[in-house]
Amino acid sequence: MQKNIWLATFLVAFYACTATATPTPFLFTVDPAQSLADVDVDAASAGFSDSDSDSTRLAGTFLALIDPEVAPFSTARIVAMDVTNVDGLDMSLSFGGIFGAILNLAVESSDLEIHLTEPGGVGAVDGNGRFTQADNGLQLIAHATASCTGLLCGTVDLPPTFDVDDTTTVDFDNCRVTQTGQLTTLFIPVAATFEQVDNDGNTLTFVLDGQLVGTGVAIPEPSGGLLLLMAAVAYLAIRPSRL
Question: What is the torsion angle, in degrees rounded to the nearest 10, for the CA atoms of residue 178, residue 179, residue 183 and residue 189?
Fold first, then answer.
């Protein structure tokens, strides 16, 4: 629901501020079969550190402004992204050797979210459909449950969950947009590092390396009546509650 509200709000502002639909908004649905990410988790605490990794398929949507509407394209800009993990992630981190402790972290499906909080600049699309979009604000929100095995577990005050909420600046290098008929495909490589430090100085780092592949079509410019309806929906969703 929140994603749909954001999209309605964006489109209201976009169509209200442009006399013509240029560039054209395209809504893409992420294909989990082609969208994969390796996730490396590093934990550091009390002088010990270790890392482990797992992989997952990705699902969700993203929005891009592309000009012109029909290939060959000249410019593209990814302006929104709401992506989550399809598969659960399981990592085991060792602290203190065989006499220490094993920290087991589990991230359930949909408990890792990737959002584009600050879109980068417009990318120039070359003859092969490739472009780079620099300086994007990318946010990771992750929730992991924790368990401990080993001799030192009883001496460590281990929280039952770990939460990461961090935003970093990344470049989307070597993106590619293609079109077959009315169906448009956008490929986005994603590589980013996120870090969370708690009040005790313990550090949890997530390193993502993967790709998003989405297919979509152009969003048609709404009629005047539909635009008013979208504006009403957006207003009702974001206005302060009177309760």
Answer: 0
Q: What is the dihedral sign for C-alpha 6, 79, 229, 216?
A: negative
Specify whether the CB–CB gap between 145 and 178 falls below 8 A: no
The CA distance from 122 to 134, in Å, is 8
Residues 6+ apart with CB under 8 A from 38: 53, 54, 55, 208, 209, 210
65-93: pLDDT as tens digits: 999 999 999 999 999 999 999 999 999 98
226 three-class SS: helix
Predicted structure pTM score: 0.81
For the segment 55-65, what is each residue's pLDDT rounded down to a tens digit? Answer: 999 999 999 99
Rounded average pLDDT over 155-173: 87
Domain extent listing, the chain: 1-21+221-243, 24-218
Q: At what angle do helices 2-17 and 224-238 cross, to 10 degrees?
A: 130
User: The tokens 């449950």 sit on which residue?
Assistant: 145
